[in-house]
Amino acid sequence: MSLHDPVPAPEDAGIQIRNLTVSYDTDRGRFHALNDVTLDIRPRHITGFIGESGSGKTTLAMAMMNAIHNPGRIDGGSVLLEGAGDVLRLKGEELRRLHGRYFGFVFQASSNSLNPLKRIGAQLMDLGRSHGVTDLRALLREAKTLAERMGMDGDRVLTSYQHELSGGMRQRVGIIFALVLKARVIILDEPTTALDMLSQQAVLEIVRTIHQERGLTTVIITHDMGVVAEMADRVVVLYAGRVVEEGPTQSVLRHPRHPYTRGLIHAIPRITGNLHDVEPLQGTPPDLATIPTIGCVFRERCPIRAPICDTVAPTPTSAHGDGIVTCHGVDQHD
Amino acid sequence: MGLINMIEVRGLVKTFPARGGLLSQKAVQAVKGVSFTIPDAGAVAFIGESGCGKTTIGRILTGLETYDSGEIYYNGQNLTSLTPRERQERLRKIQLIQQDPYAALNPARTIYQTLMAPLTWEAKRQQKNRDWMERRAREVLELVGLNPDVVLGKYPHMLSGGQRQRVVIARALTVQPDVLVADEAVSMIDVSLRLGILTLLQALRRDYGIALLFITHDIAAARYIGHDGRVYVIYQGEIVEQAATDELIQSPVHPYTQALLSAIPVLRGLEQPGPDRHIPLGEFALAEGNGCRFAPRCRFAEQRCRDEKPPEVAWQHEEHRHTCHYPTPRRVVPEPLEAKS
User: B-chain residues within 8 Å CB-CB of A196?
Assistant: First the structure.
């Protein structure tokens, strides 16, 4: 074992997020992108973060890794990572090593996160070197095996430049980068947006298999309820930087308690069933500059708005067995 | 006569020439003899994977790409026999809406300026004045459900993705098009706003008789542009199956159609997978030889499929057509669970 790899990450890397608040400094003022988020990410589960653009799902994932950069700032809260303590207290080299040991992040546009001037293999070796991997050959062997398991020709992938690979292949290369360092927590940001249905299923299938095989803690960030429904054990619904509902996926899909979750589910174009059962979500996605600062953030778009929503922000209440919902109106429904 | 076919395409072929470089050393035939019709105010969807040639067909129809052979009839007139200039003039009435509303609008122009550019041409053509242009700009924005007072002075970055796509549609409407070609027009838009755009396209069709060619990999979205729609399934530049939308969804007979439909995510808790669901995970390989192009990926392929190219034939009735030696209807799409358990 190399000097740079003192303690291996524990098998079960659960994450406890407490009262996490993140704000962004813009020329229109300082806005909260996350507001008092408390959440447990369970080990060996696939957790889906769902919400529209601007709901804070990517910010939440970045804050979990203490990777919020200027003009963003973590204002408060804690992120307890099993075996590593509070991630928000780490910085510099310590934090960088923790990232390499624990986290694998697959970026939204994987084609934009690869270096166009270097072959995939060379980029993998850079990754290994920067995280103190001594046996680079083993790293490449591992990458090749992963590529082959994903239905690609390993040698071809490693000797290719990114432009020589299709969109679906590049997305899979992104996943290889996240997995070769034996990360315990894999975060995928919109892993299948812009892929066609068959490539999407291929990518999801690989994620599911490797998640189970390695007993990972996996987070999928998406605005597509279909992806969450296929993949996630638990779903976290975010709106304007707040968790509005959380629970086991099937229960949330079947009996959504929050009007926003209901709206998201009803807005999905479905392949069977009555066309008229589907209706668009009212209003536009939240804009950090215009969301209300007092009362419920969703009230402008809410079909069950009540007077209390204008003045008092709802607090999380228990729902779906071990989940939560944040709405004044839950008792009136189901 | 019953239906008037606004657009009729026969045996369309397009080959992209060989270029230098590592990848494209062979000429690629992107469209291999495709025939279809778009009825007056009709709704037609093309579905298939990335790279199947569906976008190329849309670009040919809108005059952005040339074609090698085949015939395109537009309102009964053969476009192939026209000069390029005359052809371009006709094709102006067929407008393309592209996938990415972020790239389709000039970031340095306000929405007002964006709409005025095509309106200036229209005004010249129809000998109208500036007032007419201003009125028309407000009109098209209202048609797509935007408030002109709010939107006209804004730049694209000040609008959400869904609003931008509406502006793109408004711009296409300035020329009073006969046909809108929507190429993955909703795939980059938040799921919550997709339905709004789909309903808008549906309304344009119903209220103004604008025909729609909907190019997508998301067949569920294709259902929402009209009840009487028709779907063409394209694989490697050829149509492998075609039928009325709901018939194709409920009883697809070509294994490729079945693969595409199987790949639709199942909303667990609300739906269960179709009993015959099967998703092939292999890479998209260009087929060689004389047989069925899908045979290398097909789990039902027999020797005959590799040797002999299947012709296009009807299944049960003339409107449902396919190219498979062993057509078998299978139930692959997600099925709704009972309302409450």
Answer: 48-50, 217
B160 lies within 8 A of chain A by CB:
yes
> Angle A167-180/A136-149 helices, nearest 10 degrees?
140
Return the exposure string of B256-292: e unless at least 16 CB atoms fall within 10 Å of the residue's CB, then b: bbbbbbbbbbbbbbbbebbeebebbeeebeeeeeebb
Identify whether A298 is part of a domain: yes
A284/B162 touch (CB, cutoff 8 Å), yes or no: yes
Count CB atoms within 10 A of the CB of residue A19: 12
Confidence of residue B2 (pLDDT cuts 50, 70, 90): very low
- Domain containing residue A137: 15-332
User: For B9-36, what is each residue's pLDDT tens digit?
Assistant: 999 999 988 665 555 556 788 899 999 9
The ipTM of this complex is 0.84
Which residue from A164, A267, A275 is facing B192, i.e. has the nearest CB?
A: A267
**Which two structure tokens, joined as six digits, stand for B184?**
């993955």
Question: How distant is the Cα of B133 from the closest Cα of chain A, in angstroms?
Answer: 29
CA distance to partner chain A, nearest, from residue B220 (Å): 5
Residue A112 above 80 pLDDT?
A: no
A252 touches chain B (CB under 8 A): yes
Report whether the peptide linkage leading into residue A71 is cis, meaning its omega lies within 30 degrees of zero: yes
Indicate whether A328 belongs to any domain: yes
Angle at the Cα of A24 from the Cα atoms of A19 and A25, rounded to 5 degrees: 140
Are the beta carbons of A166 and B163 separated by less than 8 Å?
A: no
Per-residue pLDDT averaged across A19-27, rounded? 90
pLDDT, tens only, A217-271: 999 999 888 899 999 999 999 999 999 999 999 999 999 999 999 999 988 888 8
The residue of chain A nearest to residue B267, with distances taken between CA atoms, is: A229
Closest residue on chain A to B248 (Cα) = A271
Q: Does A53 touch chain B (CB under 8 A)?
A: yes
CB A159 within 8 A of CB A119: yes
Q: In this structure, is residue A60 part of a structural domain?
A: yes
Q: Which domains does chain B have, with CATH numbers?
A: 5-17+28-93+177-336 (3.40.50.300), 109-176 (no CATH)
Give the minimum alpha-carbon distance from A287 to chain B in angstroms, rounded to a whole number: 10
Extract the tokens encoding B102: 């972020």
Q: Does A279 touch chain B (CB under 8 A)?
A: yes
A191: CATH: 3.40.50.300
Q: How many domains does chain A have?
A: 1
Q: Do the domain assignments include residue A4?
A: no
